[in-house]
Amino acid sequence: MRLLVDGHVLLSWLRGSGGLSPDAVAAIRSRTNDVFVSVATLWELAIKHSLGKLKVDVDLREHVREQRFEELPITADHAAAVRDLPPHHRDPFDRMLVAQARCEGLTLVTHDRAMTAYDVPIVIA
Q1: How far apart are CA 76 and CA 63, in angstroms?
Q2: DSSP states of 46-63 as a string?
């Protein structure tokens, strides 16, 4: 399985996976799965950190590499796919994750049950 973790999942994993469902932990831990972190997620967390809404004491890019996660860049195809999404969710970062999951054939790992309205596979974290 190819997974795309959202920001909440990434931060929970960073803190020791305590806030994640057993299904999410098993999927992320499995060596047979590829785990991706979108540049959109890193961007969103950097914005929240710079605004004082989130405190992150580590370099998230380094953490992503140490955890064997792969960075997923944003492409023009991803940006175009956002345009075609129904308006189930208003958060632009979450909409990008859905578009990336659709374009790349990824399963989205998220706490956000609103994401289940989209036609992408989901693991609820």
Answers
A1: 26
A2: HHHHHTTS----S-HHHH
What digits encode the pLDDT tens for the residues 101-121? 999 999 999 999 999 999 999
> Which of 116, 109, 112 is closest to 2 using CA atoms?
109
**Surface-to-core class of residue 50, CB atoms within 10 Å of its CB (0-12 exposed, 13-18 middle, 19+ buried):** exposed
CB burial of residue 21 (10 Å; 0-12, 13-18, 19+): middle
What are 8's two structure tokens?
A: 């909440």
Does this model's pTM top 0.85? My answer is yes
For residue 6, report the phi and psi dihedrals to the nearest 5 degrees: -90, 180
- Each residue of 51-83: pLDDT tens digit? 999 998 888 999 999 999 999 999 999 999 999
Contact 37, 8 (CB under 8 A): no
Rounded to the nearest 5 percent, the helix, strand and coil shares of the chain are: 50, 15, 35
Domains in the chain with CATH codes = 2-124 (3.40.50.1010)
